[in-house]
From TrEMBL, chains A, B:
A Pfam family this chain is assigned to: TetR_C_11
InterPro entries attached to this UniProt entry: Homeodomain-like_sf (IPR009057), HTH-type_TetR-like_transc_reg (IPR050109), HTH_TetR (IPR001647), Tet_transcr_reg_TetR-rel_C_sf (IPR036271), TetR_C (IPR011075)
Record PROSITE patterns: HTH_TETR_2 (PS50977)
Segments forming domain HTH tetR-type: 14-74
Segments of the chain annotated as binding DNA: 37-56
Record key words, sorted: DNA-binding, Transcription, Transcription regulation
Top-level lineage group: Bacteria
Protein name: TetR/AcrR family transcriptional regulator
Native species: Nonomuraea antimicrobica
Amino acid sequence: MSIARKPNPARRSEQSRQAIFKATRELISEVGYANVSIEAIAARAGAGKQTIYRWWRSKAAVVFDSFLALSEAGRQEEMMLPDTGDIEADLKLVMRATVTEFADPDFEAPIRALNAEIINDPDLAAQYREKLAGPVEEAKKARLCSAQRAGQIAADADLDLVLELLYAPLYQRWLHRSGPLTPEYADALVDLTLKAFRP
Amino acid sequence: MSIARKPNPARRSEQSRQAIFKATRELISEVGYANVSIEAIAARAGAGKQTIYRWWRSKAAVVFDSFLALSEAGRQEEMMLPDTGDIEADLKLVMRATVTEFADPDFEAPIRALNAEIINDPDLAAQYREKLAGPVEEAKKARLCSAQRAGQIAADADLDLVLELLYAPLYQRWLHRSGPLTPEYADALVDLTLKAFRP
């Protein structure tokens, strides 16, 4: 069939998208968010500048999609936290996976560069919360709610505060490279947080 | 006496030092650590470039001294945490003061810029820990030790972890502007941390 020999536009378009995301993440790691240009992304990705402008309305939009794409494959499952009925076991599983991710140089370099930008740029911080952190936090809160209904976490617990107690120490330790990121550390944070919010 | 009319070199030298510190902090807020030059500091402070090179061996050294100077006057007292025998009351006093400091735009702007640099620069992170964070943490740990002896905190508690649970949520909330910094928030962090580390 002649159709098999023709280039597949949908497939080429997806390859181009992935090349643009990869180039964006690499450039952010190398030169920092502020110094990345659409021109440089296009050059590295082997794509046309106009293609990028047609698909995204700003540099920030490409950057966010490139981070979303990083875990797009596993995204559907990731957005639902495991719910075996045992909040301690489920949180330890998730926190250990997070620690492993942050300890991976390939994963952490672009995230680190993005974090440095977010600190100085309130607009970027707001976008980050809305597009990346927000949806993930909602998924986590859904799991915590289920633990509240099961009487494993105080019914009046502020879930924003639960997430801060659980994740902020790990985030700060990673950001400042101030201590080891180990499975034992992940477990300790879960144990302490559950004790602090015990009914 | 003629000596009263002569310029006082020690005093002029201290004024010059303070002008250099102020210029350094202002420039970091305005253009970011990476873009601050010794030339620009000298020009804004009305000092000679050679003076700066004579007093400090690097840009990082001037920057750190300029942050140390920010609380130099209160430094001696700050380094000792209050010890009334009531760890809850003492920590709430200190945490409320920290929240107030981070909510002050004049104080927070240069600290924010410095934090963004620390994230991308492991050497700067190590210097920050050694010169600024380290001594303050030792003072806090001394107070926590005293609470351990009084049976108010578990004897086997990891004091690094106590400090992370207490301060990292506040730090992250400030860094990401993700929630209000209030006295109630300071109190909540103290209550939760003490519950998590209860003997």
